[in-house]
């Protein structure tokens, strides 16, 4: 698996697209054939490249939050830029196939909601808290200054916090398709009356 940085020209387009799962967007490339995994809105995972999966940078685990964020920015700046243009692609919802047998059939048209998630809608009460876990110390889906969050962003209720003791715990608890440890957590307090799905 090889890592690339998303091209600057694609960053704004990508952050306006919904997520496929928490911290992950699955993007079909312009040719309609290749699928790209975009993590945190900034890093593309290419499973066909050389294996870099065990080279976890120290900023993921060591130092004060400020130094870890600076370490992340240095690490991100050192990644090669992806040569693919994502703006012409389409972000698809995540689907699970358990024990596929025989040759793969063409995928069905995307469902209105992701299978396996409860299809409930609701309205936030005053003071209700949600959390979001990501593998990188800067979130492109949350405005840190205002606390605003983009539509189509995955979160979890506050009742999940006791079950997520580490970044790898978040990966396991939420069955995150990106296996990098999601060691960064944001607390979100939407205004009362905010609608969620």
> What radius of gyration results from the CA coordinates?
17 Å
**N- and C-termini, Cα separation:** 33 Å
State the major sheet. 5 strands, antiparallel
Poorly predicted regions are 96-102
Number of contiguous helices: 3
The helix/strand order is EHEEEHEEEEHEE
| Oligomer designation | single chain
Find the structural class using helix and strand composition: alpha+beta
Share in β-strands: 15-25%
Shape: globular
Structurally, the number of domains stands at: 1
Strand order of the largest sheet: 1-4-3-2-5
As a percent range, the share of helical residues equals 10-25%
Tell me how many strands there are.
Answer: 10
Look at the structure and give the mean pLDDT: 77
Folded structure, characterized:
- The strands form three sheets. A five-stranded antiparallel sheet has the order 1-4-3-2-5, with no helix packed on it. It has a three-stranded antiparallel sheet with strand order 8-7-9, with no helix packed on it.
- Helices cover 15% and strands 19% of the residues.
- It has three helices and ten strands, in the order E-H-E-E-E-H-E-E-E-E-H-E-E.
- With 197 residues, it is of the alpha+beta class.
- 21% of the residues are buried.
- The protein has helices at residues 8-15, 65-78, 167-173, and strands at 2-5, 24-28, 35-39, 43-46, 90-92, 122-123, 130-134, 156-157, 184-188, 195-196.
Strand and helix layout:
Blueprint (H helix, E strand, L loop, with lengths): L1 E4 L2 H8 L8 E5 L6 E5 L3 E4 L18 H14 L11 E3 L29 E2 L6 E5 L21 E2 L9 H7 L10 E5 L6 E2 L1
Antiparallel strand pairs: 1-4, 2-3, 2-5, 3-4, 6-10, 7-8, 7-9
